[in-house]
Design brief:
It is a single chain. By secondary structure, the chain is an alpha/beta fold. It has a single domain, classed as Rossmann fold, CATH 3.40.50.300. 24% of the residues lie in helices and 29% in strands. It is built from four helices and seven strands, in the order E-H-E-H-E-E-H-H-E-E-E. The protein has a seven-stranded mixed sheet with strand order 1-7-6-2-5-4-3. A hairpin with a 6-residue loop joins strand 3 (66-69) and strand 4 (76-80). Helix 1 crosses helix 2. The longest helix has 12 residues, at 10-21. It starts with a strand and ends with a strand.
């Protein structure tokens, strides 16, 4: 099933993440695709809030690779693959094991060496100004 929506601000993009969070089960991977500045981290802020974690704790994990947010109905692991170019490095992260019992949101998911079964793909595209087109596809 595919859903497409348009947001006009960062807060609307976060709201889209909040809405998706309400539908997520444990051990779901949310694969985020989009250019730099597209709004992937804003979307994850919404996911965190929708899962019951503090959205103000969410920042881009570009340099730490993985951040974990707890305190809600499910833990959220936020992964950023931007700096990784070798599929072995990505495999070494053990993403399948990390997501046990929680939700894993993966920015730059196009770098994954193979698909993750049962994942939700979120594509965020720039529009004019703060407008974003968000496509959510459940695999």
């Amino acid at each position: 099933m595919t859903t497409t929506l348009t947001t006009h601000s960062e807060s609307e993009t976060a709201a889209a993440g909040r809405e998706l969070a309400a539908t997520l089960a444990p051990e779901t991977a949310v694969l985020l695709f989009g250019d730099l500045g597209a709004g992937k981290t804003a979307f994850v802020r919404g996911l965190a809030e929708g899962l019951g974690a503090n959205p103000s704790d969410v920042s881009s994990p570009t340099f730490t690779l993985i951040q974990e947010y707890r305190g809600g109905r499910l833990p959220l692991l936020h992964v950023d693959l931007y700096r990784l170019d070798d599929s072995r490095e990505i495999d070494d992260l053990g993403l399948e094991e990390l997501g046990s019992g929680g939700v894993v949101a993966i920015e730059w998911a196009e770098k994954l060496p193979r698909p993750i079964p049962g994942s939700v793909a979120v594509r965020i595209e720039h529009g004019d100004g703060d407008t974003r087109r968000i496509t959510v596809e459940r695999n």
